[in-house]
Design a protein that fits this description.
alpha/beta, four-stranded parallel sheet, 47% helix
């Protein structure tokens, strides 16, 4: 199992818990992809940390801050090397170095997108792929939303016919959707 995205090693205690079911049948390998973790983090304080509530409502990536961030990071790292393709190659090199024939990948957020790129590049190395919070193109989001809405409606309709479900949930909001 590989956890991708932001610095994964900060989650080591979750995976090391003795009652964690993942550990029963899998080795856990946490990878801090390029620019994350403690070895060479690429952080821009002016873009990552907001001071006070008022700053939460201003432009998320002001051009001036992005330029300052790019300039400061360019001074310490070759930013052309921090891309999804190189990160996927890094994962493959780690898989080979550890001696795994195939791996199960679990990716969250950007890690979900990276996991997809890895699978496309090294499909023979992937046993299973699980992604959460994918960053999808708008066309794919529309497709997923259309079917998610239909699935939710079916769930509500099914709950109407189940007496326990209907009794439990109808009290919360009798005016919304077709069930609640």
């Amino acid at each position: 199992m590989v956890d991708l995205g932001v610095a994964a090693t900060k989650n080591a205690t979750f995976f090391s818990d003795s009652v964690n079911l993942y550990r029963l049948e899998h080795d856990i390998v946490l990878i801090d992809v390029r620019g994350t973790g403690e070895s060479n983090p690429l952080h821009c304080r002016q873009l990552q940390f907001k001071e006070g509530l008022q700053q939460q409502f201003v432009e998320m990536y002001p051009k001036q801050y992005v330029k300052e961030c790019f300039d400061s990071l360019s001074a310490i790292a070759d930013l052309t090397q921090y891309n999804t393709t190189n990160m996927a190659i890094d994962i493959e090199e780690i898989r080979i170095w550890l001696g795994y024939e195939k791996i199960n990948i679990f990716g969250l957020s950007f890690g979900g997108r990276l996991a997809q790129v890895y699978m496309k590049m090294f499909s023979a190395s992937v046993e299973n792929l699980s992604c959460g919070h994918l960053q999808l193109p708008i066309q794919e989001c529309h497709f997923i939303t259309k079917y998610a809405d239909a699935s939710l409606k079916k769930l509500f309709d099914d709950c109407k016919t189940d007496s326990l479900c209907n009794l439990t949930f109808r009290i919360y909001n009798q005016n919304s959707m077709s069930l609640l």
